[in-house]
Design the sequence.
């Protein structure tokens, strides 16, 4: 049935698929196919070395190249990524934070090579560095200089690329790290306040033009399964952003005060167990951000049903895109005004969220703002505690997850039938090819021009000058991602964010079960003449530390002495810490697909150090076919998201320690 001609319809949101892997050439082919299927915007996923500012041949990049996104090491890669895609007509979202300035410089340089005017370019750089210290872990520099880079990018784009969204404040990852709706609203808006205050105080934007800065701030939001509450959360965001921009910054133009947001619906709630249930989860989450016209997302990307298993295939991403298209083009959703206006139930819930978030924002501001609340560990500790409580509810059954802790009987899935390739895999040859490619690039460029550009960047970084023009000069000269970030690391210094584990509460686990495991830990330590010690490690560049933090909290509460140094460690660093601390078990967490490279390296390192009696266990997104390979290479146990009972896992770890040390079971 066609839309009635006498009713004004809302326009569909921008439809994206978060995509990229293996190489610029492979990702370019994927983007072209997606655009041909009706996708209306591009969303670029970068691999972890690119996200954290390393080249493919760096030691930390081993096993990570091309796994969770596309490697972009220099302007040649960026040219290839967008070959045949006119950037003047594109709307491109780039999920990039610490090196956001660098990737936008490469994008602008390639667009200008295509003949595009900067002022034509439309899209978004995520560029939200604060949440990287709290949840995602792809920071490269300390908080203060990181905020400076974000500020420089914001101020430069407002003048030079006025249609670009230079920062995408990102509560998405906060929810994945355990944030309640109140925490999600409060911490992301506190970040926006920190950015706007810094831009205002930098003097780089005239007061009369500050409304243009506010107008280009956008948000990237998560939508969970409690879709009524999630929809109310979006209305609360709208109300508080209106209040902040009007009262704190004096923005008079209602269009500049508009809350502009895009969405990736929740990947945290997707399950490895009965993954076909993820389809209806994704659809319900999509409704949370589309049903309410007054708080409707302006861009939307959906995960694929099998993201809890590994990297989705093109067909899986097509399925997710078709979900959006059915809702936008087959239903009558866009024909109506807001469906919830005047609802007393909705208004009460929105008021509750607004009040709670307003109080938490003020608490953060009283600490000195979001940077201070990051450095003190306050916000991270709050998130770790919230996620611990969520896990407790799942383990106790207070929170039902269909197919995981309830209704878990199942028929064999034809989607995962024997012989079916249920996920995309990245050939290890991709990493070797990327290393060879960057070696050729370095040998063929004008290295004198590269050094001159890097010297200019270094000199500018030591002042308070805006770093965007120096970064553009580096992009055009052929500087690599690792070289650009390396210069800034040398000036700004390195940083390791607080883990939040030491201040987190354990979520009130079932006392009887935990007490039994605690007694086993105590008794085993007594038999061995020492307190049991566990090292929890995050090898490689995978910054998704939520699982590792929850394991560390539960191990601590079970009586282990826990050594957890945070993210981004080489296998050799993990081995050195394990030997130095005399640990009795090493637990590794890997979600990026690099487990076959980094985990055996730890096992082999312990063996070489004479500590082969220390069992190594691994948890994360690990395909079933990889488990026997890991066991053959010395891994004692493998846990995946279906293994949600952490206290039971602690008991199994005690059993492993007893076996390795010749004690009775």
Sequence:
């Amino acid at each position: 049935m066609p839309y009635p001609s006498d009713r004004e319809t809302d326009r569909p949101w921008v439809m994206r698929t978060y995509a990229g892997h293996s190489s610029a050439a492979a990702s370019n082919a994927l983007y072209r196919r997606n655009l041909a299927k009706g996708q209306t915007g591009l969303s670029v996923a970068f691999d972890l070395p690119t996200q954290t500012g390393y080249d493919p041949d760096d030691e930390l990049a081993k096993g990570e190249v091309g796994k969770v996104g596309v490697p972009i090491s220099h302007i040649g890669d960026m040219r290839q990524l967008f070959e045949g895609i006119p950037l003047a007509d594109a709307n491109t979202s780039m999920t990039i934070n610490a090196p956001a300035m660098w990737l936008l410089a490469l994008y602008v340089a390639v667009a200008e090579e295509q003949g595009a005017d900067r002022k034509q370019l439309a899209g978004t750089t995520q560029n939200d560095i604060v949440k990287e210290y709290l949840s995602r872990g792809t920071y490269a520099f300390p908080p203060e200089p990181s905020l400076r880079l974000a500020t420089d990018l914001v101020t430069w784009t407002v003048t030079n690329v006025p249609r670009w969204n230079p920062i995408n404040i990102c509560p998405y990852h906060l929810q994945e790290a355990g944030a309640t709706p109140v925490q999600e609203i409060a911490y992301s808006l506190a970040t926006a306040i920190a950015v706007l205050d810094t831009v205002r105080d930098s003097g780089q934007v005239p007061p009369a033009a500050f409304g243009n800065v506010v107008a280009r701030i956008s948000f990237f939001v998560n939508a969970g399964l409690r879709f009524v509450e999630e929809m109310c959360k979006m209305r609360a965001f709208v109300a508080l952003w209106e209040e902040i921009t009007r009262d704190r910054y004096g923005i008079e133009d209602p269009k500049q005060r508009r809350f502009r947001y895009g969405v990736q619906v929740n990947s945290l709630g997707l399950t490895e167990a009965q993954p076909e249930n993820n389809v209806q989860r994704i659809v319900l989450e999509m409704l949370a951000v589309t049903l309410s016209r007054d708080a409707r997302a302006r861009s939307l990307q959906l995960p694929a049903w099998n993201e809890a298993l590994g990297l989705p295939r093109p067909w899986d991403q097509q399925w997710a895109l078709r979900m959006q298209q059915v809702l936008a083009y087959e239903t009558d959703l866009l024909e109506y005004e807001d469906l919830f206006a005047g609802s007393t139930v909705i208004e009460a819930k929105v008021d509750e969220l607004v009040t709670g978030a307003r109080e938490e924002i003020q608490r953060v501001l009283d600490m000195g703002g979001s940077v201070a609340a990051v450095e003190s560990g306050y916000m991270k500790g709050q998130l770790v505690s919230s996620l611990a409580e969520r896990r407790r509810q799942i383990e106790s059954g207070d929170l039902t997850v269909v197919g995981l802790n309830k209704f878990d009987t199942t028929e064999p899935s034809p989607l995962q039938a024997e012989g079916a390739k249920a996920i995309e895999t990245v050939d290890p040859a991709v990493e070797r090819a990327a290393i060879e490619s960057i070696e050729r690039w370095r040998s063929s460029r004008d290295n004198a021009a590269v050094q001159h550009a890097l010297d200019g960047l270094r000199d500018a970084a030591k002042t308070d000058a805006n770093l965007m023009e120096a970064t553009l000069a580096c992009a055009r000269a052929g500087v690599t991602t690792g070289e650009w970030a390396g210069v800034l690391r040398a000036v700004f210094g390195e940083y390791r964010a607080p883990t939040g584990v030491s201040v987190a509460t354990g979520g009130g686990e079932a006392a009887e079960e935990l007490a039994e495991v605690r007694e086993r830990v105590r008794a085993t330590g007594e038999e061995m003449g020492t307190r049991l010690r566990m090292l929890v490690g995050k090898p490689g560049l995978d910054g998704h530390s939520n699982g590792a933090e929850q394991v560390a909290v539960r191990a601590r509460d079970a009586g282990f002495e826990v050594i957890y140094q945070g993210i981004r460690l080489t296998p050799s660093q993990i081995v050195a810490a394990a030997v130095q601390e005399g640990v009795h078990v090493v637990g590794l967490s890997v979600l990026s697909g690099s487990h076959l490279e980094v985990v055996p390296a730890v096992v082999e390192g312990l063996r070489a150090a004479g500590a082969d009696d220390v069992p190594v266990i691994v948890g994360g997104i690990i395909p079933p076919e990889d488990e026997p390979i890991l066991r053959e290479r010395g891994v004692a146990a493998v846990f995946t998201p279906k293994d949600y009972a952490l206290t039971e896992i602690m008991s199994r770890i005690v059993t492993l320690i007893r076996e390795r040390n010749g004690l009775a079971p």
